[in-house]
């Protein structure tokens, strides 16, 4: 599968990744370069180039969906933190992030909600320290 | 724990349950009456009386969060279908439901997304047959 | 691995399986005979011959643990129903089964609790129809 | 939802939280104060004020259920450790905790059982260092 | 995202889907046509056009990986059955499928293994009835 | 259950454990000695003495199954790392490990795949530092 991939999806995906996840997203791709560069390319192409670039559901709602799912599954804390950043970057307020976690206490149990809150707390502190403004 | 519960949470919750889940929600409570009536009361009080009644995140976003989480976990199809109805009742379009499922293919895998779509298909057909209008 | 297995674990396990799960347990083993008889043997030897035969935690508590775990995971309804029978066979009351499900609403969310209750409802009805007495 | 909540559930829940989880439980509530105080309040009210305060299943059995579920799900180690403490506080022996983990090897696989044991090991060491006596 | 997608990935994916999943795979795509045709296209493009078309791991090993994962997760029975067919189509024997399920008893617990076996049993019967030969 | 266990299964299992997991496997058993020695014995007897010792599926395929399942479940990182070592010890190449993770992006979502890759990266580095050759 070494043919040059169509650069359209990749370019669109890379722009979308930067828009949503900013520096955190690029670090993930960077960390894949020496071990699984094709997975890095796929992350850009399919989730960002295809899915996040779709119409039909606004970016803020897509991040609400993602933060909810990752909080409920409770087995992917690094990605949850990247997407709490992402949600704040595309229009969620900190209050809305907290409300998503409270909502998850109903559907995935209180431990998932608590661990979601603790992830959010770390993200909020990191943004304060770096002077990142929420959208 | 037989003291009369404060009726405020219960009343608020029952109204919220009807607003969101309509007939499907009331059927769930009804089905608990002979085996676990207190669980039925808790469903009304905590998820609906407390959580869905909160400010800080609009009802449509709460249902996007719920549908996403249940699709990602993939182990609660009856509740997923109730909340696809719920999402359509409080402002989601069918297109938005489909987009949530596509979004989940990224975070919980394609099988979860496919099973989410098949649940949505059943809900859409049921609404068509009953002449239920989406919001 | 065709050497004759030590019959001690197998015999002890089969007796334990009958004590706990009764007819339902034997049906599971029966259903494996034509496709995976060794898995049937392992089910008897390891879970029942080794684990359930241990001292240090009484049988009723072991079934509380099992029913809780299967309700929380929410992806093994047939086994959950076998073990609701099992719990009732070794000393749990129907009320205690219901309380376990309510307890799970806290740790695995309300959908898991509801689906646990619906499984219990089917088991209770089956026992009533068959005239099975709880322990 | 700013009306003053009925203090009955909250008071009962706080007493129950202290009885079961002791210091560890209070720390969790404390850690929520600056980010999600309402979630802290809900933790006290629903799980402890409503559920753990119910009759029909003794506290020790409730903690067996909780430790089993959290071990099986395997995605909430901090809460698992709090509830291993809780189980020991309300009447479980260390031997019973170990047996619960062995029981989970059957229903959730050996990795869940092993990670449960490693969590228990840390809790036992912490209790030894602090001179906490088991119940 | 209505630009014409590069047909290379799609064509390659469709051929791969037919090679692996045969009729069952095409039925899945067909069932998406009226509700989520783009998800059908993505299924062909990303899993089959990109991933299954990669070198570095043979098709039989890819299906062993897939059947194992779906058995362990235990929340996607229809897809598990499609991929048991797939595994048999690309070189797995029925005995190997059974061994995968036994292997899963160790890592995901006996209920997941049992439900995997029951899914395999249905697939084997369906193949016998249709006169499908295993590879 | 203090009768002397048949040493056949134990001996066979210990040899298999050393063959597959090497030093990492023995460390796990060692770490159980003071808290749950019987669980250590069971790990040797059932997974290794019974399951891995079976014919019908070669060791390399068994490790592909295990690494896939643990990556998909995403809640047992220490065991995933032990089995990435195991897979490399019994015939998988590093490239094949990476391909398994890419395969999992389809069935368990991109976060599971990414966390699988990061676990693999740590294992590969550890092997380089220790001068461990892959098989």
From TrEMBL, chains A, B, C, D, E, F:
Gene3D superfamilies: AhpD-like
GO molecular function: peroxiredoxin activity
Name the UniProt record assigns to this protein: Carboxymuconolactone decarboxylase
Domain Carboxymuconolactone decarboxylase-like positions: 37-122
A Pfam entry, by short name: CMD
Domain of life: Bacteria
Leader peptide range in chain numbering: none
InterPro entries for this protein: 4CMD/NDH-1_regulator, AhpD-like, CMD-like
């Amino acid at each position: 599968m070494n043919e040059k991939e169509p650069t359209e999806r990749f370019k669109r995906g890379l722009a979308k990744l930067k828009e949503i996840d900013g520096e955190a997203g690029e670090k993930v791709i960077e960390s894949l370069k020496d071990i699984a560069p094709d997975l890095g390319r796929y992350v850009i192409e399919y989730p960002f180039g295809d899915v996040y670039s779709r119409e039909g559901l606004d970016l803020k709602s897509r991040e609400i969906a993602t933060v909810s799912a990752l909080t409920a599954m409770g087995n992917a804390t690094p990605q949850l933190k990247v997407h709490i950043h992402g949600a704040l970057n595309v229009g969620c307020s900190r209050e809305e992030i907290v409300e998503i976690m409270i909502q998850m206490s109903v559907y995935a149990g209180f431990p998932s909600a608590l661990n979601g809150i603790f992830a959010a707390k770390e993200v909020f502190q990191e943004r304060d320290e770096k002077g990142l403004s929420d959208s």
